[in-house]
Amino acid sequence: MTDGAVNYREKAYALLKTDADKIVKLIQVQMDNLTMPQCPLYEEVLDTQMFGLSREIDFAIRLGLVDEKDGKALLDTLERELSMLHEASTKKRVR
Q1: Of 48, 47, 46, 15, whose CA–CA distance to 28 is shortest?
Q2: Model pLDDT for residues 38-56, shown as the tens digit of each residue
Q3: What is the 3-state secondary structure (H, E, C) of the chain?
Q4: In 3D, which of 83, 77, 86 has the Cα closest to residue 35?
């Protein structure tokens, strides 16, 4: 693989990671300030953002810019982070 190809792969993954981080921040702000996790708005935002990111990852995989296992790992990590945020928010509200 050429240096240029590696650079594009690194950039593509970095962009996807940035988008995943934005989703975490968006949901964290929403949970801290706006709505409860059971709110339809929260669920709609989460579903829309996750679907969009999964399509971005699929596109990058099809272009050969991201390995399938790396793309799936990014989504899995994001889902775990969101689950931890949800649990922390739920525990905070119970107290």
Answers
A1: 46
A2: 667 677 878 899 999 999 9
A3: CCHHHHHHHHHHHHHHHHHHHHHHHHHHHHHHHHCCCCCHHHHHHHHHHHHHHHHHHHHHHHHCCCCHHHHHHHHHHHHHHHHHHHHHHHHHHHC
A4: 86
62 residue type, one letter? R
Cα angle for residues 45, 80, 93 (degrees, 5° grid): 65
Q: Could you tell me the pTM of the whole model?
A: 0.80
Task: End-to-end CA distance of the chain: give it in Å, rounded.
Answer: 54
